[in-house]
Design a protein that fits this description.
Shape: elongated
Structural class: mainly beta
Number of strands: 14
Number of helices: 1
Helix content: 10-25%
Oligomer: single chain
Distance between the termini: 53 Å
Strand content: 35-45%
Order of helices and strands: HEEEEEEEEEEEEEE
Length: 165
């Protein structure tokens, strides 16, 4: 009985260490978190180092990526389509971007579904997140000079319930 209890306690301790590691990265920043591409050409590699093959090349700065793991100066990221790989930290920016999902969406003058549309954006269009109050459905965004409010459900680039001020 004592031996079984010891094994259970050791297993619980190992699991809690793994959980803590998943929540805070080596950089001290939380995981997961969103970032954007700093450059107009960024390699997505199969592993954390230049010795690993390039799997994909992103060709638009500002695109959002979700950081899901870290290894030294490398960040394991996931894009809006679910692809995962490794990017060097110097290719990432803390500026927040977003990408429209699901179809054509309206950017509104106010954070209200009945507010007038200031622009229409198609799926795949990206822009910059300006602010996302935590308790609202809408985030203030900018796309190619148009500023307004976009429903959180209409884009990828922010965690559920996350507040961005």
């Amino acid at each position: 009985m004592f031996r079984l209890l010891s094994i259970a306690l050791i297993a619980a301790a190992v699991l809690s260490v793994g959980t803590a590691f998943a929540q805070v990265s080596g950089s001290g920043l939380p995981l997961p978190r969103f970032v954007s591409l700093r450059a107009g050409e960024v390699n997505l590699r199969t592993g954390p180092g230049v010795q690993y093959p390039v799997e994909w090349v992103y060709r638009k700065s500002g695109l959002p990526l979700e950081v899901i793991a870290e290894y030294k100066t490398w960040r394991k990221v996931r894009d809006w389509e679910g692809s995962q790989g490794w990017v060097h930290q110097t290719m990432l920016s803390s500026k927040r971007g977003f990408i429209v999902t699901g179809g054509t969406r309206d950017i509104r003058a106010k954070s209200n579904p009945k507010s007038r549309a200031v622009a229409r954006v198609q799926s795949g269009v990206s822009g910059q997140l300006i602010t996302c109050p935590g308790k609202t459905e809408y985030c203030r965004v900018e796309v190619e000079g148009f500023e307004g409010w976009l429903n959180r459900a209409d884009f990828w680039g922010i965690l559920k319930g996350e507040s961005l001020e």
